[in-house]
Each structure stands twice: as C-alpha cells, then as structure tokens.
Amino acid sequence: MTKIIDGKATSAAIKAEIARETAGIVAAGHAAPHLVAILVGHDGGSETYVANKVKACEVCGFRSTLIRMEDSVSQEELLAEVSRLNADDSVDGFIVQLPLPRHINEQAVVEAIDPSKDVDGFHPVNVGRQAIGLPCFHSATPMGIVELLKRNGIETSGKHVVIVGRSNIVGKPLAAMMMQKAEGANATVTVCHSATPNIAQITRTADILVAALGRPGFITADMVADGAVIVDVGTTRVPDSTRPKGFRLSGDVDFETVAPKCSAITPVPGGVGPMTIVSLMINTLAAAKRRRGI
Ligand code: GUN
Which of 63, 240, 264, 271 could bridge 7 with an S-S bond, Cβ 3.0-4.6 Å? Predict the structure, then answer.
C-alpha cells in the first residue's frame, strides 16, 4: 500500500506545538513574534501564498503585518521599505514574496535584508552558512521537506536522494541540506537539471525522488523505481473549467501512474506546500526567541 504523506496534518501538528510555545512566551511577558510580508503586485499565486502565511501566523499566535506595493513600485522604494523593516525593532522577521516585477533586481532586494531577519533563508549569508552546516535560517521549502520526511518516519541516511531542479529556493538548498552529516539528512545526493541527459536513468536509481522543476506531470511511472519515496514540490496552476476558480494545482509528478509504484508520495496540494509555510513559522519563532534572549 502506498503511503500518502500528509503535509497538511504534519504541518497542523507543528503549528500546534508552535502555538503552545508562543503562548508560554507571551505569558512570560514577552511580545508575540512578529512577521511582516511584503507583497508586490497582484499575482494570484503570490496572493494565495501570502494569505496562507498570514493565516498561519494567526494559528501560531504571532502578530503579522502585510505590506502591499503596486507592480509599478520602483526598486528604490522597495529597498527603502526593506531598510525600514531592518531597523524596526518591533519586527522579528520579514519576507519579500517572490517573484518580483521584472524591472526590480530580485537579488539586490534579497541581499538588502538583514540576515538576522531573513526568515526565508534567502540571503547569501544564510545560504552560505547552511551550505557548511552552521546555525542559520534554512530556506522554507527544503526545511519543510526534511521535516516532513523526518516526522513521517522516512529514513534518509545513506539513501540516494535525486533532486530534479536546481532553483535557488528549492533544488540547490535542498541538496546542501540533504548531504549534511545530520539527523534527517546524511544522504547521497544527485541533482538533475535541464542539461542532464537521460534523466530517467538517474531518477530510477533514487530511493527518494524530489521533483522541483515546475513542469506539470514531468515525472512518469517509467522514471521511478518500485518502492521509491516521491516528494512533489510542483504547484503549477493549470486551467480547469470544472473547478470553481477555473484552475487546479498540478504537481511535477504524474500522481495517478506513479503513486501505485512507490512506497510513499506527497500529494499536491496538501504535501510540501503546507510544510513550506510552517517552516517560515519555525524560523520566525526562532528569530523572535533570539531577539528576546530566550
Ligand atoms: N515564492 C515562492 N516561494 C517563496 C518563498 O518561500 N518565499 C518567498 N518570499 N517567495 C516565494
């Protein structure tokens, strides 16, 4: 029987743990952790992600602030807002939702964030510290995947983890995390990408296969070994007139044909997505505790 790895239930359990700890912090006379999100423009996917982050803050007992800026905002205006948040003592951590409009240099914005408030773990200081196994803010999606596997009893030590996709926010940091000599990691890691010939030959050798390339249904049954564990990071909006919103979320894995072959698989939605959000909550709580000397 294939196990469906329930990211929604796992993330709910973690949020309950965070809420308990937060209640204790507030009862001891400290301010609740405060997360700020900057949302530029009105991209549907980003709107949903940010709304879910704000909702998660409520569940965890955090304070949250949403700052909206129009698509037409200049890079200087956005950088000024980042500077203001860096200096604002009431803010424990903040994120700038990506992607940003094309006229804004995303990397310049990420690098302007104070690494001690970079709860997305995107600043090069955090990325670098993560790469060499130092304490840092880990980027949310890879951190969520590691936690999801750990809490669902999936062994990673000595296993072959194949990651398809080399993005800065998923593939690269996940490869760095999975190869660390640490609990929930200690894996042999292979990263495949658009220039990899014969991807199927490599994915078939995976004990744990992570699909993070953003191509709906890319991973098909012939690319998967019997009994493998499949982690699907894809969340592409595919037009679907039978759905109330006119689209459905599609993962990078052809679930119908792959699920019967593997030992465990994350669904889309309800797999990795909720874990990404809960990782942001974990980082925000850690930032708040550090700032309060707890
Ligand atoms: N866009 C897609 N995923 C993320 C994320 O984890 N953080 C931010 N800031 N933007 C994103």
Answer: 271
